[in-house]
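Field log, afternoon session.

UNIT: design team B
ACTIVITY: writing a sequence onto a fixed backbone
BACKBONE:
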């Protein structure tokens, strides 16, 4: 066992254009809160507070920057011409849904940024990254190019880090990143088994009739998950591919991390997480060197509706030096009696390593459908790999203070959908991001810094 490997959670900073536009079909919280007035400053400070709470508790914590929004280049590619002011005004008048999309701050949910394989599991001994294509929704399809530049800027050392191209932006290879991927192992420093969860098979090979969702689309394909595993060089014995239960998708479980979370040998999941629950557990047990510890939450304890409403399973499950684990849950879990009772009586009192629950307020993110787990990308790194990171992206007291001050200088405390056409907002955002890229020491990663409009 390697003792110097640690899991670093890279949280996404909430961007200055955080708003409630209800863009995400199948995301019940996003659809429910569409049109409300958002508070970008509070959202960013809540995200930073969560990062600091985990840092203070001894968990390595990283930071990923938001994307350039509004994406005026996307509007220009769609035929809007003229000055920035003219482009914004025309889009607001002619295609307000496009304006909302190009202003989305959805990159805050870095669980969708990429899929990551630690060097322990890769045949070439490097950490592998594949940015997600996010082709299932236009507002997220705009993210991968910048995401790839940001990851390459931070994980720059080619001797230790490998970056793969985004999968083709085709429905057949619809990829939503680490939100549908879980690594299970005895510990972070041991070889792991990778659980890839998909919603549909694009080509229908081996699929059975009647296993597709009827209400909401299945975003991740089997073919995308298989392609990422191939890119990263994983062997058959290192990977398990499991289909998400279509009833869960129809209930608003648009990503697997809304219905299950794994860490070390523990898999915490709702009984309706997988279409073939028994087969999924058997495949994991067959491949894992350490005995799997399944923690099953039955539907009679927590309904799918309560699971989605509370985001119990969109929690962070973190390892402690004594072998115990901490579950980081959103405050909404306390607001539903069945969920909080299950946390106390089934999880904390059960025969599993979960020994502590930490409650975090990420309400601004939750209203758009993103809980604690959505906000972070998990990257297992050795001490040498952590030392090889470029830029200033590992949180410490100084960086936290500077980022907090940066947010308070640049972010509005009120943003309604009708404010998105304000040219001043676009100028404010560019000023903020230019300062942030210097603060983090990551160089030019944004289109406007690269001479693109």
């Amino acid at each position: 066992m390697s003792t110097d490997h640690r899991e670093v959670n890279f949280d996404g900073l909430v961007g200055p254009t955080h708003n409630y536009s209800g863009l995400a079909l199948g995301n019940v919280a996003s659809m429910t809160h569409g049109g409300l007035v958002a508070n970008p400053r509070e959202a960013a400070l809540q995200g930073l507070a969560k990062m600091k709470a985990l840092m203070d508790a001894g968990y390595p914590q990283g930071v990923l920057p938001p994307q350039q929004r509004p994406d005026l280049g996307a509007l220009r590619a769609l035929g809007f011409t003229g000055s920035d002011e003219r482009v914004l005004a025309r889009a607001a008048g002619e295609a307000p849904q496009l304006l909302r999309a190009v202003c989305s701050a959805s990159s805050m949910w870095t669980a969708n940024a990429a899929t990551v394989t630690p060097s322990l599991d890769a045949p070439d001994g490097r950490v592998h990254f594949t940015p997600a294509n996010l082709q299932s929704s236009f507002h997220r399809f705009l993210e991968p190019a910048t995401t790839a530049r940001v990851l390459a800027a931070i994980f720059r050392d080619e001797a230790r880090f490998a970056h793969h191209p985004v999968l083709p932006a085709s429905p057949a290879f619809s990829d939503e990143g680490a939100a549908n991927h879980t690594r299970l192992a005895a510990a972070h420093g041991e070889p792991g088994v990778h659980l890839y969860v998909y919603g549909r098979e694009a080509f229908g090979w081996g699929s059975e009739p009647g296993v597709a969702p009827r209400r909401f689309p299945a975003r991740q394909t089997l073919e995308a998950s298989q392609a990422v595993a191939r890119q990263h060089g994983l062997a058959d014995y290192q990977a398990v591919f499991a289909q998400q239960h279509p009833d869960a998708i129809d209930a608003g479980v648009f990503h697997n991390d809304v219905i299950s979370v794994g860490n070390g040998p523990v898999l915490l999941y709702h009984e309706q997480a997988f279409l073939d629950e028994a087969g999924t557990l058997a495949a994991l047990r067959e491949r894992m060197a350490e005995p799997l510890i399944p923690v099953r939450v039955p539907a009679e304890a927590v309904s799918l509706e309560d699971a989605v409403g509370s985001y119990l399973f969109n929690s962070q499950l973190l390892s402690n030096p004594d072998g115990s684990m901490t579950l980081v849950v959103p405050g909404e879990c306390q607001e539903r009696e069945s969920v909080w009772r299950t946390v106390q009586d089934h999880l904390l009192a059960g025969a599993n390593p979960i020994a502590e629950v930490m409650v975090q307020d990420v309400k601004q993110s939750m209203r758009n459908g993103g809980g604690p787990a959505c906000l972070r990308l998990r990257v297992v790194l050795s001490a040498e790999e952590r030392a090889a990171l470029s830029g200033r992206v590992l949180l410490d007291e100084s960086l936290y203070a500077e980022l907090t001050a940066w947010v308070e200088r640049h972010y509005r405390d009120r943003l309604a959908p009708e404010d998105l056409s304000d040219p001043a907002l676009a100028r404010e955002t560019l000023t903020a991001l230019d300062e942030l890229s210097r603060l983090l020491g990551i160089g030019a990663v944004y289109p406007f810094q690269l001479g693109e409009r």
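LOG NOTE: The mean pLDDT is 94.
NEXT ACTIVITY: expression trials, pending approval
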